[in-house]
Amino acid sequence: MHNFKEIKPEQLDKNAFHLINDEWMLITAEKDNKVNTMTASWGGLGIMWNKKVVNIVIRPQRYTKEFIDASDTFSLCFFDKEYKKTMAYIGSVSGRDENKIEKSNLTVKYIDNTPYFEEANLVFICKKLYAQEMKPECFIMTELDSEYYPNKDYHTLYISEIEKIYLK
Prior knowledge:
By secondary structure, the protein is α+β, with helices and mostly antiparallel strands. Helix content is 22%, strand content 41%. Strands 1, 2, 3, 4, 5, 6, 9 and 10 form an 8-stranded antiparallel beta sheet that branches. A two-stranded antiparallel sheet has the order 7-8. The chain is globular.
């Protein structure tokens, strides 16, 4: 972490829409001494229960979901543009089938027992607070259900407290 400085969530001056939708993020957690990660471009930042939180969603078939469910914490890592191809690769293969972290040449490090990537330029350390599976009957705009869930593989929504933010 020698290249990083810790900042408070309210000091973050990045546009959340740009960070998540355009730059993407890696969601990373550990289970049984093994680390797995996935690329994500859906989520949000905000306030819930008087806490600074991040909302992420993970489909049930994603291998990383097992790691998130098994851990109390996870990291969100954001990278410079030069890592866009690496993030696309990580999002296109499963850690069940190959060691995509090793093949991507990313370096796993730990903050308070939570894995993150040394090459990131921004790291959130998050503690899970709430998880709920999305349900078709909860859609107010019912066309979203048919458009985004034709296979009925509904995301689980995780609301997590942002415990720490590190910026390069």
